[in-house]
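hiii, so i know i said id send this last week but things got crazy w the move. better late than never?? heres the sequnce for the chain we talked about at the cafe, plus the structure i predicted for it. fair warning i was half asleep when i ran it
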Amino acid sequence: MTFANRHAVVTGRAGEIGLAIARRLSEKGAAVTLLDKKISPEVASEVEKLGFRFVTSDVTDPTSVAEAVSSLAPIDIAVANAGVHRGARALDLSPQDWFLMLSVNATGVFLFAQAAARHMVEAGGGGSLVVTGSWVQDVRWSLASIE
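okay and structure toks below
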């Protein structure tokens, strides 16, 4: 499969998964844009070497997502990959961490997918929307202590 002449956008670039996805899409010929709240200097250097574009965007903020996506070339592949996990058992998880996880992992996916789909339609075409998950989905989460 080739993605030559295709533009892929990946959220959650600050993590290893997002960069691995971006590399693979690029290897298959896609032009890649990465979206995230921030980028470390080390990763920025690697992103530049790989020829990827980086755009600052907070997936929990509808305005930030809409502005970032509308600034992009037409999108063929949109990968909603941003996610957070606060690794606490249910009895110890703070409401703030719970709300952050919902905001990024659920609302952020929706906001990005919606903005990307609108961008695809406005460009007169279709595209692919991909949502990733992680190992966290397989961790048993209970009220009891997990040791």
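btw The CA atoms of residues 87 and 93 lie 8 Å apart. thought thatd interest u
miss u guys!!
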